[in-house]
């Protein structure tokens, strides 16, 4: 079994009696208190835009969160600010630990992403234990693109997307039952008023770089993310795609498809069918 190094992810370790409360009060998702599946989460701005996102898992009496390297410094700074007087330690582990991916279960790994999508298994390990990991992360990105999963840093920058835009409400990256967290008011309003405008769409047959515009009926619907083997995920305006067979990227026809977990449709609102 091959473990794939996710070299663009940075790990942070949260420990101490107040670590769980600190995270649960600040980020969108349900933060696990005991070992088990890794849980999706996002840190939002007060305006509801994603500043950082990743997975959280409980390992060795601490919470381990990973973020894209492009937002690691800002995430660390913000979390230390939110800590205030909480009895919690926040450690930046970019020099000592790595994040890995395996399509198959391996000892010590956690299932990657709860909810309707299983992305294999997530591993966290000291650098010295990762010498045998593969440095080619193409298989990971091929799998996530096929599943319709958008990643910050690979597909969109910080402060560019709302949580609904990348499907976090459907992928269980938002805990709608817990109390307030940063950006909660915007998330709640988008859910109950149906104001989400974009949703993840899988785009195939691409001959263009990441960031190229997706055009439908002469209007831009969004931009493609990281391209792997001619496929990418894009957060698109569904209401602009009346004819899925007439979508182009840089003037070339492409194929668009909804993820298997989608509860939305082309040409309609971006809200899931059940918003209760």
List the SSEs and their pairings:
Layout: E1 4-5, E2 9-15, H1 19-24, E3 39-44, E4 50-59, E5 62-68, H2 72-83, E6 89-92, E7 97-102, E8 110-111, E9 121-126, H3 138-147, H4 184-193, E10 198-204, E11 213-216, E12 219-223, E13 231-237, E14 247-249, E15 252-253, E16 255-257
Antiparallel strand pairs: 1-7, 2-5, 2-6, 3-4, 4-5, 7-9, 8-9, 10-13, 10-16, 11-12, 11-14, 14-15
Organism: Devosia oryzisoli
Domain CAF17 C-terminal: 197-263
Pfam family, one: Beta-barrel_CAF17_C
State the gist of this model.
The chain is an alpha+beta fold and 276 residues long. The protein is built from 4 helices and 16 strands.
Overview of the molecule:
The protein is α+β, with helices and mostly antiparallel strands. It has a five-stranded antiparallel β-sheet, covered by helices on one side. 14% of the residues lie in helices and 29% in strands. Strand 4 (50-59) and strand 5 (62-68) form a beta hairpin.
Percent helix:
10-25%
Averaged pLDDT: 93
Strand segment count:
16
Instruction: Characterize the overall form.
Output: globular
Largest beta-sheet characterization: 5 strands, antiparallel
**Residue fraction in strands:** 25-35%
| Regions with little confidence, pLDDT below 50 for 5+ residues | 272-276
Give the spatial strand order of the biggest sheet: 3-4-5-2-6
The number of helices is 4
Question: What distance separates the N and C termini?
Answer: 42 Å
Q: Compute the gyration radius: what is it?
A: 18 Å
Q: Tell me the structural class.
A: alpha+beta
State the order of secondary-structure elements, H for helix, E for strand.
EEHEEEHEEEEHHEEEEEEE
Pfam family, one: Beta-barrel_CAF17_C
Keywords: Transit peptide
Protein name: Folate-binding protein YgfZ
Domain CAF17 C-terminal: 197-263
């Amino acid at each position: 079994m091959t473990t794939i190094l996710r070299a663009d992810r940075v790990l942070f370790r949260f420990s101490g009696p107040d670590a769980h409360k600190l995270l649960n009060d600040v980020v969108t998702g349900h933060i696990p208190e005991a070992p088990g599946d890794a849980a999706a989460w996002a840190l939002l701005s007060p305006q509801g835009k994603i500043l950082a996102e990743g997975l959280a898992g409980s390992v060795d009496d601490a919470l381990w969160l990973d973020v894209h390297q492009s937002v690691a410094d800002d995430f660390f700074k913000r979390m230390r600010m939110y800590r205030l007087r909480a009895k919690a330690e926040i450690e930046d582990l970019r020099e000592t630990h790595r994040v890995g991916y395996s399509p198959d279960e391996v000892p010590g790994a956690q299932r990657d992403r709860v909810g309707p999508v299983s992305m294999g298994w997530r591993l966290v390990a000291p650098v010295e234990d990762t010498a045998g990991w593969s440095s080619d992360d193409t298989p990971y990105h091929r799998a996530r693109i096929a599943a319709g999963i958008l990643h910050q840093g690979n597909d969109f920058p910080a402060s560019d997307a709302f949580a609904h835009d990348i499907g976090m409400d459907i992928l269980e990256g938002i805990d709608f039952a817990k109390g307030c967290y940063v950006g909660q008011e915007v998330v709640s309003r988008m859910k109950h008023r149906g104001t989400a405008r974009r949703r993840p769409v899988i785009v195939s047959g691409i001959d263009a770089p990441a960031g190229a515009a997706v055009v439908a009926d002469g209007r831009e619907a969004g931009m493609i993310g990281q391209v792997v083997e001619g496929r990418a995920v894009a957060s698109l305006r569904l209401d602009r795609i009346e004819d899925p067979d007439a979508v182009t990227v840089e003037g070339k026809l492409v194929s668009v498809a909804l993820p298997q977990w989608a509860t939305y449709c082309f040409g309609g609102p971006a809200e899931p069918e059940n918003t209760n």
